[in-house]
Amino acid sequence: MAQSVAVFGEALVDDFSSARVVGGAPFNLARHLAGFGLPVTMVTRIGDDDNGALIRNEFARYGMSEAGLQTGTGEATGSVHVEVGADGSHRFTIVPDQAYDHIDSAAATAAVAAADPGIFCFGTLAQRDPVSRAALHALLERTQAVRFLDLNLRPGHVTESIVFDSLQQADIVKVNEEELQQLFKWYCHTCPDTVNIECISVDTECRAMMHNFSLSTLIVTLGARGALYLSADGAHVSDHGAATGECFVDAVGAGDAFDAVFLLGRLRGWTTGRTLARANAFAHASCGHAGAVPPELATYARWLEAWAREDE
Prior knowledge:
Elements: E1 5-8, E2 12-15, E3 20-23, H1 25-35, E4 40-47, H2 50-61, E5 69-72, E6 78-84, E7 90-94, H3 105-115, E8 119-122, H4 130-142, E9 146-150, H5 160-169, E10 172-176, H6 177-187, H7 200-212, E11 217-221, E12 227-231, E13 236-239, H8 254-268, H9 272-286, H10 298-311
Parallel strand pairs: 1-4, 1-8, 2-6, 4-5, 8-9, 9-10, 10-11
Antiparallel strand pairs: 2-3, 6-7, 11-12, 12-13
């Protein structure tokens, strides 16, 4: 049986004027992992409403266990209001005081304990309310799993103190380029320019930060420029492979797609170089369809088959 993964955080609905799309970075990650055939326990909370039904339908579509899914009577399922400008730009309003802000600690602990995951994933948005933050802390105190933090900063919804605490709790941290620059400002002596991500000053400051927070691994995603992997044992691996050629539609959830394949590679024992290359390829491909997850679940099987042929 494949080693299981637990994911803690928001499952929500992106509310466009013309459509509602299920999302939330942790739920995107959980769905990808389930699509690749891994047992996943998604710890989140929804309301007993139409948006909650949409999220529950996604649990069913992906064949995911509902052991970690909580329902709050009278609570609103998480939502984000999305306004699309005339130039195609998007303006997001993350609605406060949603069901995922009230994750029950006892129920969450029971679900994760039963799953006994090898990897525990979390972010920062679902920590904005003390109730869910306390539930996360209870889980982190009890789990023996490797702790994977996708920082996923949302301005106005996370404080530096939450980031500091999250970094202290993590083993592996994934950030994008902008988030790395913010961490440099908070925790490092200098803020080197990451345009040249391979420069010595970037490596030096990253490793100082890793040492200070006792991180085993730091991953920096660079969009179309690939990704950088640093480990506490001195490894420095980068993959700057070109995009796969799909027509660009949007970059929604590309980071979550990367995370899923990175974790899959870790669980399957792929080399770091191969893992980064495959994670980047899957993330690039995710930009070729609307929304965070592929419209057809058969997509995952095609990727797994292609990777299996490469491994022969």
